């Protein structure tokens, strides 16, 4: 069998290595430049590849094409393959054929990375033989080669789901659906929602779909009457049988034989959105028969991915939090809403057409200082000049941290949550977050 792989990143190279390991004839093609580390992997496995072009004749001679998620269906090579009725699938679909492990698959517009990492943490700490893969940045196909795990926790983007057909999750999680990437879905929310719901396709009566019952777009798109598995809704809007819900500082699971009550008072996660993420992860852990005590203990030790409401230091009873990943207003709303202490807020960068009005009341209630970090801060200043008592501006993250330290009092939080892209002063949001962390360590923690 001949397999052509489009894209030579983590996903494509992983699929190529698995195909080679299974004795298939493999060819890899990438329109861009391939990273040296990936070239090395392909060369070591004696897998032929090309970069900077797609050789149509060679690719279309394949029996099947595995497409990396970043390549749209409207790409010319994909269109031609479809015309010729050559199957085009995702790396996840391909990997699923070569393992008997069970999959716990997590998707959603927001929160999927946190939920994936937390779910993995809860299961691993409970002693399950579990691997982590998918959109989180690790190839499922490459991990399947070793066949070491009984379970995989897999983060899935809508782009990965679009080319999955026979693949089945044992437990699927859908955190929420809000408008995103609509250019790939003909600007249709219905089509985007349908893509997300593919996470629950092919399920049988022994499988579970864990979903956010408070999300209007999920409620509109999910047809429970046509679903073969067990639906497990989670909600912040009240108790009920067959649900997962928050009651005080406890999460209660009231689902068939999987009942539990988990103390979340020592959880490291902040904010309402993380209550949803935690409910989803706890639901999975209970469905995997992890004890309430083991879940509560693991919640205390969880460390979220970098740059997502990440505490980076405490000095003189002032907490410094790196939320550089918050590049839109919605993410900042969750940060401001979740922090109960007075806030010195560092924001700004490249504005993406933001409407800051939804942040005004939270800022009025909680923000004592706004430090605008960016080359053009007019919009932020105009919105919050009558709302926040002190507004300053700078293009130096070191100065932003130094000023924040001087204005903070015991019990305050210094929060980097920009609401903007980073490209005016930094390479990306990771670079911005790392620079903030370094400034806190240098200016604050060493004093």
Automatic annotation (TrEMBL):
Pathway: Cell wall biogenesis; peptidoglycan biosynthesis. It is an enzyme of class 6 (ligase). Residues 307-420 form the Mur ligase C-terminal domain. One of its GO terms (biological process) is regulation of cell shape. It catalyses: UDP-N-acetyl-alpha-D-muramoyl-L-alanine + D-glutamate + ATP = UDP-N-acetyl-alpha-D-muramoyl-L-alanyl-D-glutamate + ADP + phosphate + H(+). Its EC number is 6.3.2.9. GO terms for cellular component: cytoplasm. GO terms for molecular function: ATP binding; tetrahydrofolylpolyglutamate synthase activity; UDP-N-acetylmuramoylalanine-D-glutamate ligase activity. ATP binds at residues 108-114. Pfam families: Mur_ligase_C, Mur_ligase_M, MurD-like_N. InterPro entries: Folylpolyglutamate_synth_CS, Mur-like_cat_sf, Mur_ligase_C, Mur_ligase_C_dom_sf, Mur_ligase_cen, MurD. Its main location: cytoplasm. Keywords: ATP-binding, Cell cycle, Cell division, Cell shape, Cell wall biogenesis/degradation, Cytoplasm, Ligase, Nucleotide-binding, Peptidoglycan synthesis. It is found in: Cytoplasm. Residues 106-285 form the Mur ligase central domain. It comes from the Bacteria. HAMAP family: MurD. Cell wall formation. Catalyzes the addition of glutamate to the nucleotide precursor UDP-N-acetylmuramoyl-L-alanine (UMA). Belongs to the MurCDEF family. This is UDP-N-acetylmuramoylalanine--D-glutamate ligase. It comes from Pontibacter diazotrophicus.
């Amino acid at each position: 069998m001949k397999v052509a792989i489009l894209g030579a990143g983590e996903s494509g190279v992983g699929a190529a290595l698995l195909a080679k390991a299974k004795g298939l004839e493999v060819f890899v093609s990438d329109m861009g430049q391939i990273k040296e580390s990936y070239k090395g992997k392909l060369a070591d496995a004696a897998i032929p590849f090309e970069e900077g072009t797609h050789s149509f004749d060679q690719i279309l001679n394949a029996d099947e094409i595995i497409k990396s998620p970043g390549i749209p269906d409207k790409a010319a090579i994909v269109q031609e393959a479809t015309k010729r009725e050559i199957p085009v699938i995702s790396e996840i679909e391909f990997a699923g054929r070569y393992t008997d492990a069970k999959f716990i698959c997590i998707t959603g517009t927001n929160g999927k990375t946190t939920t994936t990492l937390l779910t993995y943490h809860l299961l691993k700490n409970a002693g399950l033989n579990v691997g982590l893969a998918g959109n989180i940045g690790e190839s499922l196909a490459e991990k399947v080669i070793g066949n070491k795990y009984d379970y995989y926790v897999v983060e899935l983007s809508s782009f990965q789901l679009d080319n999955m057909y026979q693949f089945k999750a044992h437990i699927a999680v859908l955190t929420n659906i809000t408008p995103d990437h609509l250019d790939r879905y003909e600007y249709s929310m219905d089509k985007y929602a349908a893509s997300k719901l593919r996470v629950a396709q092919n399920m049988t009566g022994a499988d579970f779909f864990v979903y956010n019952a408070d999300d209007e777009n999920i409620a509109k798109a999910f047809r429970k009457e046509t679903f073969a598995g067990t639906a497990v809704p989670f909600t912040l809007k009240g108790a009920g049988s067959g649900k997962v819900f928050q009651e005080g500082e406890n999460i209660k699971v009231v689902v068939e034989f999987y009942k539990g009550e988990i103390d979340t008072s020592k959880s490291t996660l902040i904010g309402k959105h993380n209550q949803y993420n935690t409910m989803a992860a706890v639901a999975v852990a209970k469905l995997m028969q992890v004890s309430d005590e083991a879940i509560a203990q693991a919640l205390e030790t969880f460390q979220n991915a970098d740059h997502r409401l990440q505490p980076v230091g405490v000095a003189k009873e002032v907490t410094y939090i790196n939320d550089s990943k918050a590049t839109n207003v919605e993410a900042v709303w969750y940060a401001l809403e979740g922090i109960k202490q007075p806030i010195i807020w560092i924001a700004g960068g490249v504005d993406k057409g933001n409407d800051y009005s939804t942040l005004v009341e939270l800022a009025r209630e909680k923000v004592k200082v706004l430090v605008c970090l960016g080359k053009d801060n007019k919009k932020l200043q105009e919105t919050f000049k009558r709302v926040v008592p002190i507004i300053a501006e700078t293009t130096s993250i070191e100065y932003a941290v130094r000023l924040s330290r001087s204005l903070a009092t015991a019990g305050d939080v210094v929060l980097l949550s920009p609401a903007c892209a980073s490209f005016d002063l930094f390479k990306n949001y990771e670079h911005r977050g790392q620079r903030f962390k370094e400034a806190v360590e240098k200016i604050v923690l060493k004093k």
